[in-house]
Amino acid sequence: MILRVLGSAAGGGSPQWNCGCPVCTAVRSRAGLARTQSSIAVSADRRRWFLINASPDIRAQIEAFPGLHPHGDRTTPLEAVLLTDAELDHTLGLLLLREARALLLYATPAVHETLSAGSGILRTLERYCPVDWRTVTPGARLALADGLSCRAFDVPTTKRARFGPGADHGRVVGYRLTDERSGGTLVYLPAVQALTAALRAEIEGCTCLLIDGTCWRDDELVRLGLAGKTSREMGHLPIDGPDGSLAQLPSLGVERTIFVHLNNTNPVLLEHTPERRTVEERGMEVAMDGLEVQV
Ligand code: MLT
Ligand code: MN
Ligand code: ZN
């Protein structure tokens, strides 16, 4: 399969419109790459593409990627959208697809309910175009197309649901995608609070892992005076620290590990920082928009 990173930044993008932190300032002065919000596209053969999450930057992301451009009429290679959760940075883009003749949407019942009765994104979208909702059940295999299949798995989080109580089961999922022909496996995990034993088992031995790299330090936003919460409290395992992802991932036997969903404050966004060097010295990577990987 081919995976294309459409957007590698967390909610807000990099730089974020109202942020003057050192990294945002550096990116504005062209000392680092700008990044759009979190989303990837996956295809078995470059003919049909599946989006995982629909970011508020989706229009620019599609324009930047010829693989997703329409054919002569209004048919497009965009086959469906899969959702990992109902966060705005992963779902606002659905509204920007409202010109579609119909949309195929894969989401858990919990995410579907939040989008309908909570944020209302789905209720609004359905006034513009028919949405064919396919239920995602953690643990169940889903055949997508052309030998590409996926299985969602639950990602436990204590982050409070912003819209109503929301079921805990299926509120956040990750996806393990398999290309039946090449045998390649991709795990997409843009939001993870802790690498539990169950999650480690899902990741173990995959060909390529795209994982939550929101913050470098747990107290990154607190130190910068930008928020009162730690990274973990916001549902994101930090990269650094004794229990951070950098310390835990090497034992999982993954061929290629790439950090995604990078917050605009994270120093790994800039090429010449010690934090970036540390990631690369461990044989891991920091995603950028447009990155393609053959899995
Ligand atoms: C998150 O990943 O923590 C959220 O998407 C932040 C946000 O609301 O943008
Ligand atoms: Mn997010
Ligand atoms: Zn910033």
From TrEMBL:
<dbReference type="InterPro" id="IPR001279">
    <property type="entry name" value="Metallo-B-lactamas"/>
</dbReference>
<protein>
    <recommendedName>
        <fullName>Coenzyme PQQ synthesis protein B</fullName>
    </recommendedName>
</protein>
<dbReference type="InterPro" id="IPR036866">
    <property type="entry name" value="RibonucZ/Hydroxyglut_hydro"/>
</dbReference>
<comment type="pathway">
    <text>Cofactor biosynthesis; pyrroloquinoline quinone biosynthesis.</text>
</comment>
<comment type="similarity">
    <text>Belongs to the PqqB family.</text>
</comment>
<comment type="function">
    <text>May be involved in the transport of PQQ or its precursor to the periplasm.</text>
</comment>
<dbReference type="GO" id="GO:0018189">
    <property type="term" value="P:pyrroloquinoline quinone biosynthetic process"/>
</dbReference>
<feature type="domain" description="Metallo-beta-lactamase">
    <location>
        <begin position="48"/>
        <end position="261"/>
    </location>
</feature>
<keyword id="KW-0813">Transport</keyword>
<dbReference type="Pfam" id="PF12706">
    <property type="entry name" value="Lactamase_B_2"/>
</dbReference>
<dbReference type="InterPro" id="IPR011842">
    <property type="entry name" value="PQQ_synth_PqqB"/>
</dbReference>
<keyword id="KW-0884">PQQ biosynthesis</keyword>
